[in-house]
Amino acid sequence: MQMDSAVLDAVEISPAGPARAAILWLHGLGADGHDFEPLIPQLGIVEEHGVRVVLPHAPRRPVTINGGMAMPAWYDIPGPDFRQRQDSAGIRASQQQLCALIEREISRGIAAERILLAGFSQGGALVLHTGLRYPRPLAGVLVLSAYLPLADTLQAEATAINRSVPLMMAHGRQDPVVPLSLAEQSRDLLQQQGYTVAWHTYAMAHAVCPEELLDIRAWLVDCLA
User: Fold this and answer.
1) 4: in domain
2) Could you tell me if residue 61 is inside a domain?
3) Which of 118, 138, 147, 159 sits in a 20 to 30 Å window from 112, CA-based?
């Protein structure tokens, strides 16, 4: 789907009638917007709740941890410890691209408080980073198998208006890519700074499981009620 050059290309799944809400759902490293496309119908939210789901494609860039190979990525990963040598410039550039997608939904008639951010792995990290800094109230932030990047800047950069935004974090207990302990540290830091986090873990690796999808649906419906 070709869009305005200022806005990322994306897959869109829209209801037959006018959209009353929108979810911007970001994929993980090396994937694209089609990655979660098959799962959206299983959530039963598009027609039932009038939700437009936008699944953007990340720009291609060299990724250091993968030998400098170019692939779809929201930012570079310099090494196996995601907390060290973080690609601040890349994260902030993708933050601006995500904000442009939010603004586009607003221009299409969806109020900010009816827009929800979701993401898996690197996409989950980016929506968490962006959602807490966004200057208008959002419907919620869904973080799957991910963590909080640039954690040491959150307190100074977070917006008060999204201090109470609904947050759900879900993670596999056997995740070999993003360690559960890193997600737990992110959860703890968020709670220390006053955020309320709906926390879920599952018997899975770096993936999504049926039990998790049921919890995601219930949480989304609650956020968009």
Assistant:
1) no
2) yes
3) 147
